[in-house]
Every structure is written in structure tokens, then in C-alpha cells.
Amino acid sequence: MAALDRVKVLVLGDSGVGKSSLVHLLCHNQVLGNPSWTVGCSVDVRIHDYKEGTPEEKTYYIELWDVGGSVGSATSVKSTRAVFYNLLNGIILVHDLTNKKSSQNLYRWSLEALNRDVAPTGVLVTNGDYDREQFADNQIPLLVIGTKLDQIPETKRNEVLTRTAFLAEDFNAEEINLDCTNPRYLAAGSSNAVKLSRFFDKVIEKRYFLRDGNQVCNFS
């Protein structure tokens, strides 16, 4: 059996937002019983059928790189993480729906990964407003995932989800909100599962296909 082609997707966000639980759920369709802090980076693999159910269907490996969530701004910290950002094909930005700061920090995480060789200049956050132009020319597919949906009281849920919808709009990305302790949020055929599949298809297309649909020759 021929080896499957692969793509590399970074999973970024603050410590404690549930990245490891999310990656385990995505790759194994199981709840992670005892999540621990990620030191450095942990890699897991999901098998994905590109354009499933069509004549173009093909199976790929999706490598999910769960990067440790320290938000320290020290140059040494960023330099250590920079090695994980090489040759990335997509980014999943993860935030805790109960923690507004973790949502705001997604801008820092995305800029760090997308501009790993250039330190961002200027103020990224001013009274909750962000410079959306920093993401206007981004060619890397992004997906925003909010975790701990079950911990949002029903009376607050509309307010929180309205706020996070603007967050996804800033990144020109789709969003998924879920509880990583409940696999039904990613059940086959659900809207979340469709969004996830669409995101992985986009990552694969950017990696292996030209705009006209012709396959890119790649020997890496």
C-alpha cells in the first residue's frame, strides 16, 4: 500500500483551553481522560478523505501539531516555538469560551505563526479592536474552535457566541463551538463535522493543488 500524502496543521491557543483534548477527539473520536500540559509540541494524526463521496476522493494524513500554550513574549520562548511553525499548511485556533482573554490572544498566536520571521509591530489590541488588515493577505487556511461550550450558562450563550462570531469573521474563518468531553459535537453529518471536513479539504487543496485544479508536483 502506497504511503499517504500528508498535510501539517498547527493547533494554537493558550494553555488550558483544551487543545490536547480537542486533538485527541479529532484523531481518535474519544474523550481524553486525563489531559496534561503540553511541553513543546505533541503530534497526532487524523485520516481524512478529501472530497469524500466524489470521483476526486483521496485519503490523506492530517498531522495535528499541538503546540504548548505559553504566551510568554520573551524572544527565547518564541524562538523555541518557531521550529514548529515551519512548512505549515493550516492553523486551528483554539480558545476557551469562558475565558475572553484566550479569545483575544488568538490574534497574537496567529501573527506569531504567520509572521514567525518578522516580529509584529505596533499595538495589536486597543480597547478590544484589532487591525484586521494584518490578516487580509493570509493564504493559510484558518479554523476557529471554541471549547467548553457546556460551561456557558444558557442565559449568557447568545452573548458569548455573538462575540466569537466576530472573532471568526476577523480571521475570515469558519468557527466551531463544542465541548471536548462530548463526541456528539463532531458526529458524522453534523454541521460541525461538515465545517471540519471543509477546512481539511481547503488545507489539502492549498498544499497539493493549483487554482485550476491541477495537482502540484511535490517531493517533500
From TrEMBL:
Family annotation (InterPro entries): P-loop_NTPase, Sigma_54_int_dom_ATP-bd_1
Pfam annotation, one family: Roc
Name of the protein in question: Rab-like protein 3
Summary of the function given for this chain in its UniProt record: Required for KRAS signaling regulation and modulation of cell proliferation. Regulator of KRAS prenylation, and probably prenylation of other small GTPases. Required for lymphocyte development and function. Not required for myeloid cell development.
Family: Belongs to the small GTPase superfamily. Rab family.
Organism: Piaya cayana
Keywords attached to this entry: GTP-binding, Nucleotide-binding
PROSITE patterns in the cross-refs: RAB, SIGMA54_INTERACT_1
GO molecular function ontology, one term from the record: GTP binding
